[in-house]
Amino acid sequence: MIVRAFALAGALCAAAPAAAQQAVTKAEIRSQKPSVTDAQLRNQLWGMFHKEDRRTRKTPARPLEDVWLDTPAYPTKVPDLCRSDRVTMRLAPADPREIEPDADTPMRAYGLDSEKRFLFLALPAEEVSEEEDAPGKRRDMWHGACSKLDRYDERFFRADDEKMAMGGYRALVRAVRVVQAGEAKIRCNLSQIEKRPCAEVLGEFAKAPISSIESCPAVTGLACYSIFGSGDLQVRVTIVDDPDSYKRAGGEALPMGRLMSVDVDEMIILWHTRPD
To answer: Alpha helices, DSSP H only, in the chain?
Structure first.
């Protein structure tokens, strides 16, 4: 079994729409005073994020070490695929001599982390080609179905990019079809209390929200997707991604998208609440 550990923040904050941004042009920032440009860019950056009420009823105890900032979702080049960006601001005591900081300790930001979150408005079909918007097509980044999504929608999942999000989901759809049709074997590492057939477990996994899609090691010409569920299951799917490279590396001639392996693992999840 695989062990994963997570920390839960003490409270969730109520979100409000992102602030309005003042439009800016390249001609302006190439000609105006730096102080004016600085103000415009600050407005652009801060205006991207949801506004939040970060007040809580309970008095905090820990120092302000990190702050999450989320953008409203916006459309990607992949039809029906929305993306939201999460930035985590990292802070440390303003006085480096502070050895036991608490909620009253003055803090200063020193770094940023970021991650991409994706959501399918309509799940991708297995056999549909990977369409993208026409090169000259303009997308409205601030309105439409994506912008109306709740930032806490459980269908959001993490992935490195649009290709990983689309490829992983389509690989999972293919794995379910092929396994349930009896056309491929599936390897399962589940607890003894799980009595359902492995193919049924895989099918139910594919219907539920997932938390992330990641790449996993694979031989030349193959693509491996590691898909984590919102519960304690992980599915790894390996498919043929480049038939020519796979054949040159010593593999047999196989078609694009051929399912090579499916593994279902039950993880041991260690949850602990992180006090505010």
So the answer is: 26-29, 34-47, 162-180, 198-207, 243-248
Is 211 in contact with 228 (CB distance < 8 Å)? yes
d(Cα 70, Cα 84) in Å, to the nearest integer?
A: 7
pTM: 0.85
Dihedral sign for Cα 156, 159, 163, 167, please.
negative
CA–centroid distance for 10 within its chain:
22
Bridge partners of 91, per DSSP, are 109
Opening angle at CA 173, ends 229 and 248, nearest 5: 105
Assign 3-class secondary structure to 121-186. Answer: CCCCCCCCCCCCCCCCCCCCCCCCCHHHCCCCCCCCEECCCHHHHHHHHHHHHHHHHHHHCCCCCC
Candidates 143, 88, 154; CA nearest to 115 is 88
| Whole-Å CA distances, 99 to 50, 63, 92, 106, 155 | 33, 12, 11, 13, 40
Domain residue spans of the chain: 14-160, 165-273
Instruction: Provide the pairing of β-strand 259-273 with 222-229.
Output: unpaired
> What residues have CB less than 8 Å from 104, skipping those under 6 apart?
none
How many residues are present in the chain?
276
Instruction: Read off the pLDDT of each residue in 217-224 and give the average, rounded to a whole number.
Output: 95
Strand stretches in 22-121, DSSP E: 50-53, 66-70, 74-75, 81-93, 107-120
Instruction: Give per-residue pLDDT as tens, 106-126.
Output: 999 999 999 999 999 998 877
